[in-house]
Every structure is written in structure tokens, then in C-alpha cells.
Design a protein that fits this description.
This protein has 109 residues and is an all-alpha fold. Helix content is 82%, strand content 0%.
């Protein structure tokens, strides 16, 4: 009985570790996507604002380009939670196929 309990505790601990790892990786997916997207947006807007200092700048065109950059940024931001969830689910699914079977099959008597 002690061995069975020990195996059960081990199985729970392994599942917990897998869940924690999948959670961390999903968080990394989200935050790295956020950093990348925010960085691109900041660079785009900075570039557009530097054009503003040049002579003969069409302000309407500039505002339009900044608006396009903003739209792209917000679209990317709205997709990040779904990407993180997909990463989480994929990691859990891929881990389910690894390791020993949870329950041994019983032979018919």
C-alpha cells in the first residue's frame, strides 16, 4: 500500500510540475509577444514623429500612418491571450502522450 501511495504522490507531483511549466511557457509567449509588438509600435510612431520635423510634411498622411500602426498594434495585442492559451493547451496535450500509462490494463480472467 505504501508503494501505491508513493506512486500516486509522484504522479500528482509530476502533473503539477508539467502544469506549472506549461503556465510559465504560456506567460513567456504572452509577454515576449507584448514586448515585440510594443517595441515595433514605438519604433513606428517614433519614426513618423521624426518625419514631422521635416519640411513639407503632410500632417494628414502622418496621422493616417500612425493610426495604421496603432490599429496593427492593437490587433496584435488582442491576439496575444489566444496565442498564450493555445501554447498552454499544446504543451499540456504534448505532455499527455509522454511517460508511463496512468493505469495498467487488467487481464481478463
Amino acid at each position: 500500500m505504501q508503494k501505491k501511495t508513493s506512486q500516486d504522490v509522484r504522479a500528482v507531483m509530476v502533473e503539477t510540475a508539467k502544469m506549472q511549466l506549461a503556465t510559465l511557457n504560456a506567460g513567456i509567449e504572452f509577454w515576449s509577444g507584448w514586448v515585440e509588438s510594443a517595441g515595433k509600435f514605438a519604433q513606428d510612431v517614433n519614426k513618423q514623429l521624426s518625419v514631422l520635423t521635416e519640411a513639407n510634411t503632410n500632417a494628414d498622411e502622418l496621422v493616417s500612418r500612425i493610426t495604421d500602426s496603432s490599429r496593427k498594434y492593437l490587433t496584435t495585442m488582442s491576439e496575444l491571450p489566444d496565442k498564450a492559451v493555445a501554447r498552454f493547451k499544446a504543451e499540456l496535450k504534448s505532455e499527455r502522450g509522454k511517460g508511463p500509462a496512468r493505469r495498467a490494463a487488467r487481464a481478463k480472467e
